[in-house]
Amino acid sequence: MIDIKSEIVSRQMIKPSTPTPAHLKTFKLSLLDQISPGIHGNMTFFYPSNGTLVSIPGDFSEKSKLLQESICKTLSLFYPLGGRLQDAATVDCNDEGAFFVEANVNVQLSEFLDQPDFNLMDYFLPATDPETMEMSNGALFLVRFTGFTCGGVAIGISLTHKLADLSALITLLQSWSSVYRGLSDPVTPCLIGEKFLAPRDELSAMSPSFDVAAENFVLRRIVFSASKIAELKAKVDQEFREVMQSHPSRVEVVLALLWKCVVDNKKQKTGSFEPTALFQAVNLRKRMSPPLPETAFGNFVWPFMVLANEEKDLELHELVIQIRKSFNEFNNSRANHMFRGEGAASAIMEALKERGKFFRNNREMAVYRCSSWCKFPFYDTDFGWGKPIWHVSVNKLVNNTIALADTRSGDGIEAVLALDEEEMALFEQNEELLKYAALNPSIYA
User: Fold this and answer.
1) Using only C-alpha atoms, what is the Rg of the chain?
2) Per-residue pLDDT tens over the stretch 64-101
3) Residue 438, Cα to own-chain centre: how many angstroms?
4) How confident is the prediction for the chain on average, in pLDDT?
5) Alpha-carbon span 32 to 267, nearest angstrom
6) CB atoms within 10 A of CB 172
7) How confident is the model at residue 57 (pLDDT cuts 50, 70, 90)?
8) Whole-number Å distance between alpha carbons of 227 and 230
9) Does residue 181 contact residue 381 with C-beta atoms inside 8 Å?
10) Catalytic annotation present for 337
11) What is the β-pairing status of strands 98-105 and 6-14?
12) Range with lowest mean pLDDT among 126-130, 243-247, 388-392
């Protein structure tokens, strides 16, 4: 492990460039926002220097100044992000502002990226620092800008999950980077809030949160190259086509292999197969009828469930087929109408009750959660210094999670898994996994 020392240069609140009008001071969240956890999601982007090996005096300070000015302007477009949560369904748009941290570390970017260590990611994130969180006074949007000795930089973003899902983060990044570069027509968010689906009064006093597992879990990064994904697809293609009359996607085959390997490991640990479930989050915007614009700001995601009740269900082709079948069923029977119309709120509440009942009745079942960021254009986040060499989101709250993202080339997949420490040790030695994946290779590989 490399020895990183970090120095906080400054911490400050950044207020919107123009005050929020009186009639917009209270922003009511949608029902889907209301039931989202009151935690900060995070994403960190790493940008190499302009070819020099040492930091150019003044360059970092100038970038920091422009970042702060552009946040100031961007907040006026995304005015709820400059406010504070009043309760689980209301934002007081009081223009208190976002929070900005400027920091330096004593290593070169290449030293960190040679084999990224998730134990060191806190050095680049604002929301994992208790002092920053206390000073930010409930800020919904926080940024930590970190300089490396070589002139490379990291931008760590912590954004409240009450107001934004992954697609909403993309909209914010596109707008903010456009403002930074001085473009005259930045992307503007579609702030729907309660107009989409009004929050429920009976939920107003509560803010759902994740149960943080008492046991320790660890994070690992696994990378699948395009050629290995092609091998995986070829392995299951014939059986898949016979049933589904189409070809499997790269996300489906990678997710199926990862799920299969973690369940195999659990069986190795306990001595017997146990039924298992996978929940995969789906972006609802384009799947609803009528569809929402991609710039719809808020939480417009819902998970579908895949079950493997018997050991034979763990055959790779069976898992890939079941993932597609479950997705198709959700897409055709729920995504179209469950979230629209008069009965939408009741349907959502009923679905939440069903899910709660499932968890209560299957307390011993191994349940995994997956989110896929594949095809989201995170590598296009350009503030004028070029595109990032790497981006990553680090989950330190929930065990048994799988996050998938495109590699920088766009044709591979990078997975970040959170597993129990003992299970992770077995997972990293799984021969079927190692046939197709590389464990935490260099970002420069």
Assistant:
1) 22
2) 999 999 999 999 999 999 999 999 899 999 999 999 99
3) 22
4) 93
5) 36
6) 22
7) low
8) 5
9) no
10) no
11) antiparallel
12) 126-130
What b/e readout covers 358-371, taking b as 16+ CB neighbours within 10 angstroms? eeeeeeeebebbbb
Q: For residue 207, what pLDDT is reported?
A: 45
User: 218: closest CA among 440, 444, 445, 442?
Assistant: 440
pTM score: 0.95
CA distance 298 to 142: 17
* Residues forming beta bridges with residue 11, ordered by sequence position: 101
Structure tokens at 47: 């940008």
Task: Assess whether pLDDT exceeds 80 at residue 158.
Answer: yes
pLDDT at 105 over 60: yes
Exactly one of 114, 122, 382, 411 is catalytic; name it. 382
The whole-number pLDDT of residue 215 equals: 52
Q: Are 103 and 9 in contact (CB under 8 A)?
A: yes
Both tokens of 426, joined, read: 């077995």
Q: Measure the CA–CA gap between 194 and 59, rounded to whole angstroms.
A: 43
CA distances from 220 to 87, 123, 266 (A): 35, 18, 17
Nearest to 281 by CA among 305, 253, 307: 305
Residue 117: helix, strand or coil by DSSP?
A: coil
Alpha helices in 222-307 (DSSP H): 226-244, 250-270
End-to-end CA distance of the chain: 19
Which residue type is seen at 287? R
Average pLDDT (161-167) is: 96
- Would you say 170 and 283 are in contact if contact means Cβ atoms under 8 Å apart? no
Q: Name the one residue in this structure whose structure tokens are 């920053």.
A: 132
Q: How many other C-beta atoms can be found within 10 angstroms of the C-beta atom of residue 222?
A: 25
Whether 161 sits among the annotated catalytic residues: the reply is yes
Catalytic residue among 161, 313, 391, 406: 161
The DSSP bridge partners found for residue 91 are 27, 85
What DSSP character marks residue 357? H
**Structure confidence at residue 204 (pLDDT):** 56
